Amino acid sequence: MKIGILGGGQLGRMLIQEALKYDDEFYTLDPASDAPCHNISYFTQGNFNDYETVLNFGKDKDVVTIEIEHVNADALAELENQGIKVVPNSKIIKTIQQKILQKEFYKAHDIPSPEFEVMDGSSDEIKMPLPFVQKMNTGGYDGKGVQVIRTAEDMKNMWTQDSVIEKLVDIDKELSVIVARNENGETKTFPVTEMVADPKLNLLDFNICPVFLSEEIEEQINSITEKFLNAINSPGLFAIELFLDKEGKVWVNETAPRLHNSGHQSQEGNANSQFEQMYRVVKNLPLADTDAIIYSGMLNLVGAEGFSGKVIYEGMEDVLRMPETYVHLYGKTETKPGRKMGHINVLADSREELMEKLVMVKGMVRVIAE
Ligand code: ADP
What we know:
The protein is of the alpha+beta class. Helix content is 27%, strand content 31%. A hairpin with a 5-residue loop joins strand 10 (171-181) and strand 11 (187-189). Helix 2 (51-58) runs parallel beside helix 3 (73-81), helix 3 packs antiparallel against helix 4 (90-97) and helix 4 (90-97) crosses helix 5. It is globular and about 55 Å long. The site of adenosine-5'-diphosphate has 20 residues, from strand 7, strand 9, strand 10 and strand 15. Belongs to the PurK/PurT family.
């Protein structure tokens, strides 16, 4: 089967890596000539936001999927009209692309998400009491396009673009749950993972699985995933990012309609990885067993501050000597501060041991430049 992927980044790369054990051809589209998929797939250099480019790329494929959601969804809708399978469908991609539509989707399907209002004029119209969070309707990514407004003084710095104004949640834990649905309507959910964010870069720091939650909290999450899977009307793999607040209530922050950083430890920690599952979704195959087989955790290898240029992974040989430690690099030759260059998965027999190992590995390795 000819499988086309919009985006040629690390998520696509790891999907292809996993799926090469089966018999398909992978095609990728990315604006960067040296994108992580450029030398492991049939690669087209081009803009996945451009209508004609996406249409041309998709028209001779059996199925088109995404590894980034900022793509031209109108072109995907046209491909659907032409009978090409698009996973997930263009409608759910459009909904998720726009924070306002995404929030309205949760509301319409009774999925708990922090209270919000739409700002499409000036900030004078906002009724939400301070403090609150402003989220740009479009264009946000990796923590950009999100800001906390605490005081009247902060309000002077508000963005003027269309935005969602959202209640500030008193967060106890940030959790993520990856769900999948195939065209036959079969669904599977990965065990919940916990994310520990780096406050400076807003990129994930550690990601841990499994997480032990009370039965009551588990039930809230099950109800969210069930409602979500019933509401989407599309095959796909989705990462639902959750907040657990200090009162024990679970809220949906946002959903990514694709493979996600919070699922990387599934490569070695679960019976099957999110990449295997994504492949099965794309091909409408029976979905894979998602059980956690051991404690697993992931740390991102992110370009260190002050280093730009040809990448060096300082300390990598020490990491490679560690048992139950797995290095995944993304094929990026140039590092810059904050750039996601790879990740390391670690396995352990308990949560305590896992945290110790993660902290140790993090201290061993640094992403610098020549
Ligand atoms: P992005 O899509 O850029 O990752 P998010 O919507 O996930 O943006 O927000 C980034 C971070 O901002 C979250 O991980 C969380 O820590 C914080 N945040 C977002 N929304 C809220 C909220 N309503 N209340 C409290 N913190 C929030």
